[in-house]
Amino acid sequence: MLSQEVFDYLKEVGCCTICCLRFLKVRGDEYMNVAKTLQRLGLKDTCSDAENGEESGPTSKKTKPNVCVACLGFFSDEFLAKLTEALTTHPHLIQYECDEFVLAISFPILLNVRQLSLWLALIDKFGQMHGFVSNKQPDVPLKEVSKMVISPKVSQALGKKYGQNGMMISISINHADETAELQKLTEVDQILFKTNCTNNKSKKDKKGTVNGMTRGYFEKNFLPSNIDVDIYKQNIPVPPAIPDSSMIVENIAVSGPTIFVAGRYQKFCRVLPHTPWILNGKRVMADSVQELIVQSVAPYFEVPESKVIFSSSGREDVDVRCLGKGRPFVLEIPDSKRIILPQSVAENMEIEIDQTEKIRVINLQIVPREELVHIKFGEEKKTKTYRALCILNEPATVEVLQKLNIPEGFEIKQWTPIRVLHRRPLLQRPRRVHSVKARVDPNDHKILILDIVTQAGTYIKELVHGDFNRTDPCFAKLIGQDIDIAALDVLAVDLDWPKDVNNRISGQCETVRDKNEIDDLNKS
Amino acid sequence: MAALEDFYFCPEKDTAFGKSIPPITSEFPSTHRPLVDRFFTRYYLVRQKTSEEHYLVLFHSNRICMVGLSGAHPAFAKGIEQVTCPILKKTDKQSTGEDRKRSAILQKDTTIAVVKCCDGTTYNVPSCVKGKLVEINQNVLQNPSLLSKEGYGYIAILLPKIDECDDIKASLLSYEEYSGKYSK
């Protein structure tokens, strides 16, 4: 019964049952029920019957056990009760309407020192016999076990599940002896490494930047194989001494998950930029599509508007409308206080945005992060449908209209337009015009209405007039006469994302026409 | 035989906020101005060499400058045979284009092109504005007849510094000043 010997020894020097199991390399969910695990391993807690194992449900109070020398009482019922109380009474934590959480716990460096002392003690006591060697960590890290032990407790206390997409709870744990013991350790460090030339330099560098010990430095240099064990033992007790007090919860910080709210927007206004338009430090126009959406969505998630990141599948110019089914967009909302968006709330947001009468939003919904690939990638494969209002110098002829009805499409080469050349590099881009359908205004034959389907990224205004021969071919070239563009609408952005949801439950929902219906109408 | 009526546009009915969305045809601006007038301001440089040379700078609202000949330039009367661009040889191709940081900075009187007339006279076209060289118009080099077409006839595109724009404009003649002086 070799494990029993180690178990008994660890108990004797003052380890709690969980820490004993850690040094016996017990892993994973075996910590969920400590009594059962002890039974499975055939271990008997012979040292004292006061220890019932922290996980075995309600314990009868017997002689009070000492504070564990390894975890400094971290795994004790007493500490866990303190921690759960701190969590349940946390002033900010309750603000989050989020049913999942992740934990990040930071421990004092003191725990590393105690691990090293126990490590050295075990090598002395058992050595090779139990595989306690100077180049291999003797225990399952406290951090790993803490997740198994603490998470269910926190889950129970908060009534939330552990989940990677949940809110982040950062817990800083400290101990009353941390400062004093680290001071001691710094002294030992000077004795140990003053004589060791190879480590001298890196140590000095570290000292120069951080006043005292860092975890990284300790873990890198304080290894049984790397230090003069005798000097260490002279200064720091091996095995570690029983501490006077348990760990304390120093701080709990909470941050909400990042959530993504997607939808489609239509834009009816020709004096509305996509994002705030600031020229020489001054706003050119009061609103923007971005702000009109964010100001109605952000408050519900209790996030400042400035923290919300707006992105969309392309963008239109300030003077271009976006009709049809609208353009997909997504809002990235960090530190969100809520993770669900009920349809009734989404409806209210959509109705509030309607009040602006400049834009309309539909299909507002929370989407998982993975779905953002739809909006962020494959841009060059997407197609866009536009309607351009164009003007000729002379009334259109049948011949001109025939030349501009191009169902088979064509390829163009487009230099960066002059209107964006001040901020974009000069490049020639090949683009595909998939189709063009031309019609004439019955009341004014100089006015043409062109429905154009193109590859995303095509500059439409330049496709019409040619930007002084910098887009080739352009419509002007195809008809052999000047043609200019007076107004432009986006009719369709061919991205089927996010999925359709009808949030307009209470109010009557206006039908929104899609591209196919428009095509059908055009045929009639 | 197709008739124009076959191409008549009939707007779809579409609504938002309980109101119908105006069709694009109702959005036609009452005064539609040509492209150059919409986005550019005309500035002129007249310099006295062997004869009076007239140059046109189209200043875009985004501060991009398109530099070319004004219609009153004597080269047009003589007939233009060829346009060459010596700076394209002097500086490598990288001097314009993709890498804005490496593009050449031209002074107001840097020669950007040489216009050779049918009678053998040549004119050195100055850059007219101080700024980064963004582009040389290859179309005019191949087809000098474009020079006379406003906008299309630009020889070079330059990008002046933001804080130098006012000084540059002041150093040139405005349309009013130019047409007053030269009764174009």
Automatic annotation (TrEMBL), chain A:
InterPro entries: PsdUridine_synth_cat_dom_sf, Pus10-like, Pus10-like_C, Pus10_N_euk. Gene3D superfamilies: 3.30.70.2510, 3.30.70.3190. Residues 68-253 form the Pus10 N-terminal eukaryotes domain. It comes from Hermetia illucens. Its EC number is 5.4.99.25. Pfam families: Pus10_C, Pus10_N_euk. The keyword Protein biosynthesis does not apply. Residues 260-494 form the Pus10-like C-terminal domain. GO terms for biological process: tRNA pseudouridine synthesis. SUPFAM superfamilies: Pseudouridine synthase. Keywords: Isomerase, tRNA processing. Transmembrane segments: none annotated. This is tRNA pseudouridine(55) synthase. One of its GO terms (molecular function) is RNA binding. Belongs to the pseudouridine synthase Pus10 family.
TrEMBL record, chain B:
InterPro entries: Abitram (IPR039169), GCV_H/Fam206 (IPR033753), Single_hybrid_motif (IPR011053). GO terms for cellular component: dendrite; filopodium tip; lamellipodium; nucleus. GO terms for molecular function: actin filament binding; actin monomer binding. One of its GO terms (biological process) is regulation of filopodium assembly. Belongs to the ABITRAM family. This is Protein Abitram. The lineage of its organism: Eukaryota, Metazoa, Ecdysozoa, Arthropoda, Hexapoda.
